[in-house]
Every structure is written in structure tokens, then in C-alpha cells.
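About this split. The held-out portion is used to measure sequence recovery: a designer receives only the C-alpha cells and must propose an amino acid at every position. Recovery is the fraction of positions where the proposal matches the reference. Here is one held-out target exactly as it appears in the evaluation file.
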């Protein structure tokens, strides 16, 4: 898992694919490695970049002769995010994490006063909100 921990999500430098909860399984047989990847949504435009980065990182390990990165049929959701990912996303990217059944909090002031401005953000899995308390524009990551 160490090599995978070094592969960042291209949208969130400093947050690995492991911390994003995007690794469903890793299989090793001899020098062959299979990594099962869960993307944050089915049409994720970064899938090829992430797969290539994984293949490069894992393929650089001693004794590895082949790396196969395949898509998982498992659905990703925000519960898969590590605390490290949540912290970095809030602090460095002003991203709040939607948790079903709970109001999203502003990553700047902590208020539960986010008002959706657009259901469509820079990626399909994010919506644009504004905090009614501090005025900050916030992206909300949702599953």
C-alpha cells in the first residue's frame, strides 16, 4: 500500500488515492499486481491519469513485472474518505464533505449554513455553495 499512498488524486494534491478511498482491492501473484480502482463517479475524467500514476508507482517496485489497474464495480461514497483527506480538502481546497442525513459544514467557519448556488461544480461530484455565515464559496463533495 505504500506505493499507492504516494499516488495523489490529481484534483487534490496531498491527498492520496488511498486516503480518497479509491482502492477497492490489491492482488499480487508473483510479479503481477492487480489494483481495483473505485472512481468518485462513473464519468470521472481523471481515471486514465490516476490509473497511469498507479501503474507507474507500483510498477517501480522491485520484483513487479506487470501492473493491471481495473475499474471496480463498487460505488464510491464520501464515507470512504480518511480523516486526513477530509482535513486537507477542507483546509487547502475549501471543500466540504456531504454526509447523507447531515447538513454540510463550512470548512472555513464551521457553520451549518451552506446554501447551494449550483448543483454543478468543477466536477460532477461537487456542487457550489455559499456559506450564509461567513460568505465563503464552498464546494461540497457528494457521493
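Reference sequence for scoring:
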Amino acid at each position: 500500500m505504500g506505493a499507492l499512498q504516494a499516488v495523489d488524486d490529481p484534483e487534490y494534491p496531498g491527498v492520496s488515492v488511498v486516503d480518497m478511498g479509491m482502492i477497492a482491492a490489491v492482488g499480487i501473484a508473483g510479479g503481477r499486481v492487480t489494483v481495483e480502482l473505485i472512481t468518485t463517479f462513473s464519468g470521472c475524467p481523471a481515471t486514465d491519469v490516476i490509473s497511469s500514476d498507479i501503474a507507474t508507482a507500483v510498477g517501480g517496485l522491485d520484483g513487479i513485472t506487470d501492473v493491471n489497474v481495473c475499474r471496480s464495480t463498487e460505488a464510491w461514497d464520501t464515507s470512504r474518505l480518511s480523516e486526513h483527506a477530509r482535513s486537507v480538502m477542507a483546509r487547502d481546497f475549501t471543500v466540504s464533505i456531504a454526509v447523507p442525513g447531515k447538513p454540510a459544514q463550512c470548512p472555513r467557519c464551521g457553520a451549518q449554513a451552506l446554501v447551494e448556488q449550483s448543483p454543478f461544480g468543477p466536477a460532477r461530484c461537487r456542487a457550489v455553495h455559499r456559506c450564509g455565515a461567513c460568505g465563503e464559496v464552498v464546494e461540497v463533495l457528494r457521493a
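Annotator remark: The mean pLDDT is 92.
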